[in-house]
Write a structure and sequence with these properties.
The protein has 421 residues and is an alpha/beta fold. The chain folds into 2 domains: 2-202 and 402-417, 3-Deoxy-D-manno-octulosonic-acid transferase, N-terminal domain (Rossmann fold, 3-Layer(aba) Sandwich); 212-399, Rossmann fold (3-Layer(aba) Sandwich). It has 19 helices and 14 strands. Strand 4, helix 7 (134-142) and strand 5 form a beta-alpha-beta unit.
């Protein structure tokens, strides 16, 4: 049945190329290194190489603790990080600099993935979260490359979708050498989908160390605001900004609203939306200072890789991606910063972490934007409650660290099993 899947991929190739070129209008990175997407690379092959795939921005940041652990454990190996999105590629450059090799992962065409594997000859492959490509996984098995699914999460909704395509997904999951699941529920669902050697290794995001320089910059920015309160809308998605700003716009105090859209290509559109809604907008990318008035002040976080800065300057954070059925966004960064976190109802991609945070009284999950803003205002007016939630958040993160070492142990076992470790 994988043959049918491959035929469909080839039939879709003109559409794939057209979409790639179309996305390149806003993000030129999609028009760069096109040959890599078909397995052709100009990078020099290395005698000892480990390969890790992080599809986009979130995965590129999540994998940082594991990348650092692998680099410490195997200093004589090069580490190749692949991605699929242009923003993911930029994030890899930003997070890892020249310490890793960087390439686009080829599309899941048999010849493309074979060229990729024959060129790089990785000793180990690590796929971050839920990146399962049937032809790639099968080719890795044929070439003797053990593949780990790392930081693996599997929501009930996603599992249902994979089951519908069980004829394709089950052999792919069964071909994985190991799976490091974030939690027990993820492990159960992955096992039912056909995965073997499933270990509960925890969430790598608990091990991420925030950028100390950005934290210091955020705190200095916050100190310059004096007694002014700061409410952060973090990683918002299309359809959410208008609703959140409508609920926040009727405040007549000096609260500064900080809004950070999830996707770079939407920065200008969100700025225009806020201005149409009557907000005075200052943009971080332009070095503009927040407006000092008492109404409708918005500071737009239109930069990438600075969430540590934004969390360091805020008093309360509202997590985007959760007020539409989009699965939510990572709330661990806010918890690690000791910030009270509020989410909407749709956190199914981060369900386990959300439950942990709510149970620890580090976060609140609310049914809609109106309730979220009402509770956010209550928190801003209650510094003692904010402080208690902040302490609970930091304790939660401290309790759940160690995922990188558990992942490393699985990788070490697979590499040693090859007889070359």
């Amino acid at each position: 049945m994988r043959t049918l899947y491959t035929w469909l991929l080839y039939a879709a190739l003109p559409w794939v190329l057209a979409r790639l070129w179309w996305r390149g209008r806003r993000e030129p990175g999609y028009r760069e290194a096109l040959a890599e997407r078909f397995g052709f690379s100009t990078l020099e092959p290395k005698p000892k190489l480990l390969w890790l795939h992080a599809v986009s921005v979130g995965e590129a940041r999540a994998c940082a603790p594991l990348v650092r652990a692998l680099q410490r454990e195997y200093p004589d190996h090069e580490l190749l990080v692949t991605c699929l999105t242009a923003s993911g590629r930029e994030t890899v450059k930003q997070v890892f600099g020249e310490s890793v090799l960087l390439a686009y992962l080829p599309y899941d065409y048999p010849r493309a993935v074979r060229r990729f594997l024959e060129h790089f000859r990785p000793r180990l492959g690590v796929l971050v979260e839920t990146e399962i490509w049937p032809n790639l996984v099968q080719a890795c098995r044929q070439y003797g490359v053990p593949v780990v699914l790392a930081n693996a999460r599997m929501s009930h909704r996603s599992a249902r979708g994979y089951r519908r395509l069980g004829w394709l997904s089950q052999p792919a999951f069964a071909s994985l050498a190991a799976v490091c699941a974030q939690g027990a529920a993820d492990a159960r669902r992955l096992t039912r989908l056909g995965a073997r050697e499933v270990t509960i290794a925890g969430n790598l995001k608990f091990d991420i160390e925030p950028d100390a320089a950005k934290v210091a910059e955020g705190r200095a920015f916050r100190a310059a605001l004096g007694q002014r309160k700061v409410l952060l809308f973090a990683s918002t998605r299309e359809g959410e900004e208008e609703r959140l700003l409508e609920e926040a716009g009727d405040t007549d105090d000096s609260t500064l609203l900080v809004l950070v859209p999830r996707h770079q290509q939407r920065f200008d559109a969100v700025a225009s939306l806020a201005e149409r809604m009557g907000f005075t907008v200052a943009r971080r990318s332009l070095g503009e200072a927040p407006h000092q008035g008492r109404r409708s002040c918005l500071y737009l976080g239109d930069t990438m890789g600075e969430m540590a800065f934004y969390y360091a300057l805020c008093d309360v954070a509202v997590i985007g991606g959760s007020f539409e059925p989009l699965g939510g966004q990572n709330l661990i960064e806010g918890c690690a910063a000791g910030v009270p976190v509020i989410t909407g109802p749709h956190m199914f991609n981060f369900a386990d972490v959300t439950r942990l945070a709510v149970r620890a009284q580090a976060a609140l999950q609310l049914p809609d934007a109106a309730a979220a803003l009402r509770v956010a205002r209550d928190l801003l007016a209650d510094p003692e409650r904010c402080a208690r939630m902040g302490v609970a958040a930091r304790r939660l993160c401290a309790r759940h660290r160690g995922a990188a070492e558990r992942h490393l142990a699985v990788c070490r076992r697979l590499l040693t099993g090859q007889g070359r470790g």
